Amino acid sequence: MGCKHPRNPIHPVSPSSSQAVTRRAATVASGTLTSRVLGAARDVALAASFPVALTDAFFVAFTIPNTFRAIVAEGTVSAALIPVYTEVKHQQGAAQARAFFRGLMAVMVVVLLALSIAGSMGAPWIVQLYAPGYTADRFETTVELTRVLFPYLFLMGFAAIFTGGLHAHHRFAPPAFAPAFLNLCLIGAALFSALTTMDPKQGIQVLAWAALLGGTLHVLVQAPALRTTGLLAWPRWSVWKQLYNGKTDTHVRRALKLMVPLIAGGAVYQINILLARLLASYLPEGAQSYLYYSQRLVEIPQGMFALAIATASLPALSALRAKNDRHGLRQAFRKNLKLTAFLAVPSSAALWILSQPIVATLFGHGAFHEAHVHETTLTLRWMALGILAVATCRTTVPIFYAHQDTRSPVVGAIVNLIIFGLVAWGTLFSIGTQGLAMAITAGAIAQLITLLMLTKRHIPGAINLSVPKAVLRHAVATTPAAILAYVAKDWIPWIPSTPLWMRVSVLFAMVLGWVMLYIGTAQMIRVEESKELLGAFNRRLKRN
What we know:
Number of strands: 0
Largest sheet: none
Shape: globular
Distance between the termini: 41 Å
């Protein structure tokens, strides 16, 4: 952290190292793409099968355990586990690293189990925080669903421990494809409810139990891969005895110490979600669903690409940090930012321009009416504007985690919360869910600016002119596809009376044309990230 940049810089990151991160990101992106496609199918099934009053209740109930999961498990475990595990393995060997992993697992299992039980018991009070504006009937339905869904926190927390161990061993495929099982279970439950004479309220209960089944499968499908790393073993319960006696394993203690600011940062971020749900509960029926479906659509590029790059880069950045390779860190960080922008810029433009065709085609049928499509479209446009900021935040945070700095991301999250709250409060009652979407985008932009400024603590000069120049080239490469899509989107009316097969065909043709034209233009103007990413996917296809 206090090392000066050497006069004779270390050689840049080797092509093989750079290609390894890109290849791993491609693996994660492939798995995430599978999950996102199934997630879109799931959302289509939910919108068509249940009235918005019930989906409003389900989305709030499902948000609650996922909020706790995000705070104490998912990103927290990986960000604390991977750097410490990598360092212990590098300095003390694999046996000590495995002992650390089992000790941390023992602590997390007890914490997750306690939270799951407490959450199920305290469901009425928690729902009151998230949806105080709900009517009595919707409130009671949400409480019932929350009680069923809270054990999902334990399952996904356990899955996060497995994922952290696999990522530390550069095993990315099993965790990337595991979430697909949740979506398959929810699709099956929604179709079962729609195709039978089951009452919709009973159907939404079946959906909640299906989520628990999906969470169980998420854990189980990772176990075989974890066995090959030597990490599939019983938790080391002796850690709790050491804690009781006032002692504990040094490495476990260090990981737990790293988790404290991570939990604080996660809590700050989740307050944004809580505020969004709380404020939306005072809006007319359907607001929660408009917000949820829009978030799901922007999460396709944010989750599939930005999360893939962040996930694949953390072990590599941690290894460079362990070797004190400051120049390598700088080069790797810039490459991650450029690759993120290469994918985020066209995604943002596509979701903004094609917002109505996408929403009308995916959700505009069954119980989801034309007015619902209109409101979701307006909400999606504001969220689409924030894709680059959110995606870049996700790929910036690992540089702090690699330095075991879990405090700086908290500062960024607090800035996000403040800006979100101010914008949301100022716009909510004038433009509804659009105001919430605008607030989410504004908060993300403010958070990104803060994080980029804080990177100077660890790698001065990390951001140079090459990064904004790359973003500009990506915008230029996007322009032809954007113009063509803007003209083509009015070929057919995007209303329920237009046959679904026609809407699907035209939308598919526009999206495919966008991708091909963007890649072709990027290749023509020699965008480096295009060549590198296509090479990674080609190598993966040849191996398969």
